[in-house]
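Sequence design from tokenized structure. All designs in this work follow the same two-part layout: the structure record, then the generated sequence. An example of the structure record is given first.
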């Protein structure tokens, strides 16, 4: 099988790594990829959001499957263009990707499908915003209706700040605050059936103790020893399958990964948001544990033959990933500083380093090329071992001004004895 992965982050490096170890994958390409994927795949410089360029490349390479990483690629209609050209694509069409691209659309689908989520109002004027803030009360949750790379959401008890964010966004969704731990659950879908991956937890805030601004994600771990038994089956039955059924009923079948961001509230499971793609950095830990070959699995989704009774095989033990971010991430990350210590980090048993936002400078040195620079993965029999491995590897890395959270999976590891 010849596979092309679109995107250039830590998630794409993890996807490429998992595809690389599938024996049926005989050729692996990434566009644009990063210096990490270059070690296991052929990188192609192109804009992955350009449907014509992607279709031309996929045709020229004769690939049997295109796997889409970032949401922007889906929203640009790359899935539509590939399918039109007869090239199997793991990733939904533009219309189905609106489940992520428009928060208002997601709410409408959830209402039609009876999926439990926060009560919400779509607001376009100051008067509507003020009325919604009154109705829900603090803490206020204000979301930009469009794509904002995980940074369009403000959760605050400061009413003026909530109103200010709404004014800056234009069209917003204002909703009920959901209390309780968050879980990311990814389901692989073929338009009709869905199969869950392991649930994971993500750390969205920039600093320890969930302080600081929201980010794309600063770390993640799986499995979740504290999750209630039956959680995955419940979410598949009450959230994922009804959503897949509703999109199929609308004749926009959902092909790809449906990412349910969930809050486990005292009143039950609620959807915080849907994403139309693998989460980053949760994918790094989830795919680390996956023993079922990924290429065949994603291809069966893309061509429409996913066996709904399929039970995936998972490695025992745990995985933790810690993101090393550039100075000033998420506000305005500093690029261009050299990254050192990768060889030392690779020697830590049970750990490895995925490239997230790296680049080569004119002299060929590895430098920071994005906000989230590296995603360091640690594995072990228990979460505590996986944490130790990840943080030992992080300690061996050097990047001037960089920062990372020191509390990824700490609480879960303490309770996992
Ligand atoms: P999103 O971009 O929708 O993933 O939101 C980013 C983060 O904001 C989520 O991971 C939550 O931590 C938080 N958030 C979003 N919606 C709510 C809500 N209704 N109640 C509480 N927190 C929320
Ligand atoms: N880690 C959160 C996301 O990928 O949106």
């Amino acid at each position: 099988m010849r596979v092309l992965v679109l995107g250039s982050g830590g998630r794409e490096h993890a996807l490429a790594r998992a595809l690389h170890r599938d024996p049926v994958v005989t050729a692996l390409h990434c566009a644009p990829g990063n210096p990490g994927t270059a070690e296991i795949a052929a990188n192609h410089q192109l804009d992955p959001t350009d449907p014509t360029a992607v279709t031309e490349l996929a045709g020229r390479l004769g690939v049997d499957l295109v796997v889409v990483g970032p949401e922007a690629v889906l929203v640009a209609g790359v899935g539509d263009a590939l399918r039109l050209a007869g090239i199997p694509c793991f990733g939904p069409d533009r219309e189905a990707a609106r489940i992520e691209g428009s928060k208002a659309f997601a709410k409408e689908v959830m209402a039609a499908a009876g999926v439990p989520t926060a009560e919400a109002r779509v607001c376009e004027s100051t008067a509507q915003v003020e009325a919604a803030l009154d109705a829900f009360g603090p803490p206020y949750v204000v979301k930009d209706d469009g794509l904002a790379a995980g940074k369009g959401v403000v959760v605050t008890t400061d009413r003026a700040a909530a109103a200010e964010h709404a004014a800056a966004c234009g069209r917003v969704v204002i909703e009920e605050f959901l209390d309780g731990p968050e879980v990311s659950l990814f389901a692989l879908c073929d338009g009709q059936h869905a199969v869950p991956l392991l649930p994971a937890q993500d750390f969205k805030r920039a600093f320890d103790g969930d302080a600081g601004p929201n980010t794309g994600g600063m770390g993640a771990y799986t499995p979740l020893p504290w999750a209630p038994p039956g959680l995955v089956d419940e979410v598949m039955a009450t959230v994922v399958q009804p959503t897949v059924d509703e999109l199929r009923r609308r004749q926009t079948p959902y092909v790809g990964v449906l990412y349910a961001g969930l809050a486990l509230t005292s009143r039950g499971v609620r959807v915080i948001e849907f994403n139309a793609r693998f989460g980053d950095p949760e994918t790094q830990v989830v795919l680390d544990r996956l023993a079922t070959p990924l290429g065949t699995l994603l291809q069966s989704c893309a061509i429409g033959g996913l066996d709904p009774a399929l039970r995936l095989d998972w490695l025992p033990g745990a995985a933790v990933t810690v993101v090393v971010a550039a100075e000033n991430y998420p506000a305005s990350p500093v690029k261009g500083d050299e990254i050192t210590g990768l060889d030392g980090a690779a020697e830590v048993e049970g750990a490895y380093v995925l490239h997230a936002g790296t680049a080569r400078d004119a002299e060929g040195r590895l430098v920071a090329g994005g906000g989230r620079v590296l995603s360091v993965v640690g594995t072990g029999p228990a979460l505590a071992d996986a944490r130790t491995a990840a943080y030992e590897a992080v300690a061996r890395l050097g990047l001037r001004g960089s920062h990372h959270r020191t509390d990824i999976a700490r609480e879960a590891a303490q309770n996992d004895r």
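The pocket of adenosine monophosphate (ligand 1) is lined by residues 118, 141, 143, 150, 153, 155, 175-178, 182, 204, 214, 261, 272-273 (CB under 6 Å). We note this feature because it recurs in several other targets discussed in the main text.
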